[in-house]
């Protein structure tokens, strides 16, 4: 090493090198070594190698070489950089005896920090893959086509219910237990890959349980793993896993879909799937019969073109509410135009179906033909209206005559005659009120009443209606009390119809309130509307009657009704007025006899069609 050209070459080599003398001191090292440990040039010359490597003596360094070898490679030796930081090294140690200087060692060093990290990452990845395979219970096999031999994993043996010590031939066992109808299907992926027709192939087949009790579904995936120089396939690898549960789910899903299809196709009422643009996507025979179209012709149209123009605006508004999520479904009676131009009535129910992101995808509609029911209702309404009108005229004349007799002083009547005259006039007034209620009910039911809505201050209307009905408070011995925290609240109302609603609610509250109690009338803002409530304390509304309370001619107790009077139409008429004016109505009643009837007045002008 005293030859100058050799020393210069040694120092310029890119691989970290050093020569260590018999006393453990560094005799020579190159620039790459100084760079590896972070020292300035020539600083390491004469320094003990023990400061850099985890050895305490030359003997310990030499002990890595096992005779008769003269060198050794040590991986994982942890060195120390000049700043004390550890460095993972692979060190090749070569020993020789110099006649002048004794035992010497040449060390070639390599930083394997990143290499070790990569190996660790690979090992971790392999471990995760093995865990995943085991966790997913995927059996693996390797097939040699030339030898027709197969090597299988432990999990594959488990899937075939073979004991680890079972010496049965796996191929024969497998062939014997594959369903006879599925054997060709199960062998097809191996055939395709073996002949080079596919790089990978898969299949699904049935495998009999070892005890013969039943069948399990298996999925097999096969791929080409190796070819020889002639491109002939010399090795196949495959994986199998059980899919019995998935097959059961698929079977149940198919059965459910078939049931839904049959229910859709054979339903006696019209059913349809409608796109967001209104086009029919799927229709059943009943709907085709209702609208008078063949299935192909109906699918070429949309619901807008078959809806009566007067009903279309309300339909579109409700569909927009469905898409926006403000309502979950709706149900409405509407008119459709048949292919022959005739008008049919349908009771339409609509729901919206959303996709996985919650966006509207399509509508599901159900249409019941109510044309005949509507015709019969109209006939009944016309009959009732005709009878009522025919009764009203003579009854008005009779009541006028009775009133005139009551005020005649020229010929005084006996007490018995006066009593009979009073009874006749009371019954006549009651009959007149019944006829008026029936006529109003029929008009509201047929939506033949026009509403003239305008923005008005609600408290003014409430005070006016309360004053108009003070006679009720005197008649039933109650007191009316108005509560209004904010007198400025206003809403869209028809003045005349509002007074009719208030009269019905005040009359109802006064009739059934305890004598001497107070009836509270409250006006307050409530969820984008003005809420008017009428609260009394008296009779408890029976639970069995609550669902019937707004239906026509409904009465909770006939004896109570006879004592207080009433036609059973007031609340039904009130509900129709409120809803056709764009509001809502309801009630609450507790077991202590506190009952509140309430209705809302919209603070924004209702859309066209609501009040008709």
TrEMBL record:
Keyword terms: Coiled coil, Kinase, Phosphoprotein, Transferase, Two-component regulatory system
Keyword Signal: no
SUPFAM superfamilies with a match to the protein in the record: ATPase domain of HSP90 chaperone/DNA topoisomerase II/histidine kinase (SSF55874), Homodimeric domain of signal transducing histidine kinase (SSF47384), PYP-like sensor domain (PAS domain) (SSF55785)
Occurrences of domain Histidine kinase (ranges): 386-605
Molecular function GO terms recorded: histidine phosphotransfer kinase activity; phosphorelay sensor kinase activity
One Pfam family here: HATPase_c
EC number of this enzyme: 2.7.13.3
Stored CDD domains: HisKA, PAS
PROSITE patterns per record: HIS_KIN, PAC, PAS
Protein name per Swiss-Prot or TrEMBL: histidine kinase
Catalytic activity: ATP + protein L-histidine = ADP + protein N-phospho-L-histidine
Coiled-coil positions: 239-266
């Amino acid at each position: 090493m005293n030859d100058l050209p050799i020393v210069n070459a040694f120092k310029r080599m890119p691989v970290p090198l050093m020569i260590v003398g018999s006393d453990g001191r560094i005799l020579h090292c190159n620039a790459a070594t100084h760079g590896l440990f972070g020292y300035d040039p020539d600083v390491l010359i004469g320094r003990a190698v023990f400061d850099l490597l985890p050895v305490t003596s030359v003997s310990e360094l030499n002990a890595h070489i096992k005779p008769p070898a003269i060198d050794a490679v040590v991986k994982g030796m942890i060195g120390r950089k000049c700043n004390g930081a550890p460095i993972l090294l692979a060190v090749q140690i070569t020993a020789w005896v110099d006649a002048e200087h004794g035992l010497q060692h040449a060390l070639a060093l390599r930083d394997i920090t990143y290499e070790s990290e990569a190996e660790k990452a690979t090992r971790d990845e392999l471990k995760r893959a093995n865990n995943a395979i085991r966790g997913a219970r995927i059996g693996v096999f390797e097939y040699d086509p030339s030898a027709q031999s197969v090597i299988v994993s432990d999990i594959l043996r488990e899937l075939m219910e073979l004991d680890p010590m079972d010496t049965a031939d796996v191929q024969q066992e497998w062939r014997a237990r594959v369903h006879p109808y599925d054997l060709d299907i199960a062998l097809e992926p191996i055939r395709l890959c073996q002949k080079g027709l596919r790089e990978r192939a898969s299949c699904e087949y049935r495998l009999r349980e070892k005890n013969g009790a039943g069948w399990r579904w298996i999925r097999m995936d096969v791929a080409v793993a190796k070819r020889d120089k002639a491109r002939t396939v010399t090795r196949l690898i495959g994986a199998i896993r059980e899919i019995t549960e998935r097959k059961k789910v698929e079977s149940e899903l198919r059965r459910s879909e078939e049931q839904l299809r049959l229910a859709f196709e054979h339903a006696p009422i019209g059913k349809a799937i409608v796109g967001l643009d209104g086009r029919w996507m799927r229709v059943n025979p009943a709907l085709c019969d209702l609208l008078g179209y063949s299935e192909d012709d109906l699918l070429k149209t949309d619901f807008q073109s078959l809806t009566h123009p007067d009903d279309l605006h309300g339909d579109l508004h409700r569909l927009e509410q469905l898409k926006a999520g403000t309502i979950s479904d709706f149900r409405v009676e509407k008119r459709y135009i048949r292919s022959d131009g005739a008008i049919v009535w349908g009771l339409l129910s609509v729901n919206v179906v959303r996709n996985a992101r919650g966006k509207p995808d399509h509508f599901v509609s159900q249409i019941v033909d109510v044309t005949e029911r509507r015709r019969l209702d109209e006939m009944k309404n016309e009959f009732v209206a005709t009878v009522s009108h025919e009764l009203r005229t003579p009854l008005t004349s009779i009541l006028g005559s009775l009133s005139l007799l009551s005020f005649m002083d020229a010929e005084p009547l006996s007490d018995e005659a006066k009593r009979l005259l009073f009874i006749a006039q009371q019954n006549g007034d009651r009959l007149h009120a019944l006829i008026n209620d029936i006529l109003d009910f029929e008009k509201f039911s047929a939506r033949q009443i026009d509403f003239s809505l305008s923005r008005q201050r609600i408290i003014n209307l409430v005070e006016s209606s309360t004053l108009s009905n003070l006679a009720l408070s005197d008649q039933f011995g109650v007191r009316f009390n108005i509560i209004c925290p904010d007198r400025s609240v206003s809403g869209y109302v028809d003045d005349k119809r509002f007074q009719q609603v208030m009269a019905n609610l005040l009359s109802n509250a006064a009739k059934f309130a305890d004598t001497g109690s107070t009836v509270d009338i409250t006006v307050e803002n409530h969820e984008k509307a003005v809420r008017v409530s009428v609260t009394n304390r008296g009779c408890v509304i029976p639970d069995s009657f609550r669902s019937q309370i707004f239906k026509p001619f409904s009465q909770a107790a006939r004896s109570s009704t006879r004592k207080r009077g009433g036609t059973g139409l007031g609340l039904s008429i009130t509900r129709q007025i409120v809803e056709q004016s764009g509001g809502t109505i309801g009630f609450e009643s507790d077991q202590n006899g506190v009952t509140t009837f309430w209705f809302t007045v919209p603070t924004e002008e209702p859309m066209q069609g609501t009040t008709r």
